[in-house]
Amino acid sequence: MTFQSPIAYVRRETPARSLRSVEYELIAQITQRLRTTWANRATDFPALVAALTANQQLWSTLAGDVATPGNGLPATLRARLFYLYEFTTQHSRAVLDDKASIEVLTDINTSIMRGLRGDGGLA
Fold this sequence. Notes:
Elements (H helix, E strand, L loop, with lengths): L18 H21 L5 H22 L8 H22 L6 H15 L6
Helix pairs in contact: 1-2, 1-4, 2-3
């Protein structure tokens, strides 16, 4: 009698994803959430606040990563990304105060997504 584990022969349905593709997907989801909640801000302002918070958490994480001494990105790109974190923080406050729109935040995220895809962006 032979026993072969069925797990060893199961075909993977979802291929392993690169970190860049995971980052891309996360930024894309947050960006879409910003757009959707902006469009519905008059009827669901708390959803906009939650989307802005998610975007801010994303940028805070990115800033922490680029501020780490072992980060392999070029220094100029790291500085630009850290500046964008600071900018998104200030601009998000302006959005919450009804003094700005989310358009520039979604433009920044879209630019980062292009960079992750290799289509240009900040690099």
